[in-house]
Amino acid sequence: MFYKVTANHDNKGIDMLNQARKSFLSLFVAATVTGGIGYAEACSRILWETEDYGVFVSRTMDWFTPSNPTVEVRTKGQSYTGYDGEGALEWTSKYASIGMTAFGVGLVDGFNEVGFSANGLFLDEENVGEIDDSKKQIVNTRFIAYLLDSFATVEEALEVVEQLQVHQFGEGAHKLSGHYSLQDASGDSAIIEFVDGELSIFHGKEYKVMTNSPVYQQHLKNWEEVKPSNANEYQGTFELPGNVISSQRFIWNSYMSEQLKEPTSYTNGLAKLDSVTYKVPNDAANRVVDGEMTGYDTQYTLTYNLDQQILNVRYQYQDTYTHYFVNFEELNDGENYTLQADRADLFGDVTSEFKPSLGTMANYYQ
């Protein structure tokens, strides 16, 4: 189903937030101004519902500079503000969650203790339009955390999303833009986009793949035009787009994920889904930035099962090449914890490596 809807920090926390904002903006401006680029290519997400082992989710983070990621566990009962201005959404978390941050400004992915998950991927076209005073306001770098904190199902989240305006993080012409995928333990799924002042929602289990620009409706059209007409066409001779731009990654991820067969275990399911999720090779040419050809490498892949509640991280960027996992249930003890996700010494079960820390979202405490 597709439809549109028209539409108090301490000084230390403020200093941390301002530093993170400056760090991100300096990198983003370098790409958008000196490179003169249009679409930025970053990330893929795939959802896979199975008969015996529940719902699996995989997402990549593809970017052209280090994203300084941390894995953070946040307990329930913490109160946040979503916007630095009038009409700000304020909330107190109902659920504990685990997620991945980027650039020290917010969460880009995660799941909560009741099996609800959300992902934020880059989308150039995001534009909230004029502020609507009848709606609550939230910045997109805080949106994933709000969703994880507040909802148990996709249906619950969609009932509230229509009452919100999601603003881009950044200043002037240089802003972080995104669109958002939601999923829950029933296999329900939704894609949310705020474009030209309108909210577009694609709701249903069929919306299993998301990448980046263009807008989601165009991706669906592209897939319909090229997808195999019957099961017999899924074979090695089928001509498949496979370059690194998001329109081709959407088709690749759709084609490969359609062929997944029922897993024999949680581990087998994680391995299967991770294997089909498109990963942009290191050094693969993407676009010219500041006179030089630049790539948007896959820095890491997150893969998890919404029943199992274990976050698997495959990090493969610069001088770090690791594969590790975190048992969320063991850390869900009423405290907040943080782990630097790009450490080169992380392998296997790293649950014990987490340290008590308020984390990134503490910048937005009420």
Q: Could you explain how this protein is built, in words?
A:
The chain has 366 residues and is an alpha+beta fold. Helices cover 22% and strands 34% of the residues. It has helices at residues 11-34, 140-150, 154-161, 216-226, 246-257, 266-276, 328-331; strands at 2-5, 45-49, 55-63, 70-74, 79-81, 90-92, 97-102, 106-112, 116-122, 136-139, 164-167, 169-171, 174-176, 178-184, 189-195, 198-203, 209-210, 287-289, 292-294, 297-305, 310-317, 320-327, 337-340, 347-349, 355-356. A ten-stranded antiparallel sheet has the order 1-16-15-14-9-8-7-4-23-25, covered by helices on one side. Strands 17-2-3-20-21-22-24 form a seven-stranded mixed sheet. Strands 5-6 form a two-stranded antiparallel ribbon. Helix 4 crosses helix 5. The radius of gyration is 19 Å and the shape is globular. Mean pLDDT is 91; it is low at 6-14 and 28-39.
The general outline is globular
Q: Indicate the mean pLDDT.
A: 91
Radius of gyration: 19 Å
Which oligomeric state applies?
single chain
Low-confidence stretches: 6-14, 28-39
Overall SS class: alpha+beta
Taken as a percent bin, the fraction of beta residues is 25-35%
Number of helices: 7
Distance between the termini: 36 Å
Tally of strands: 25
Task: State the share of residues found in helices, binned by percent.
Answer: 10-25%
Largest sheet: 10 strands, antiparallel
- Name the strands of the widest sheet in spatial order: 1-16-15-14-9-8-7-4-23-25
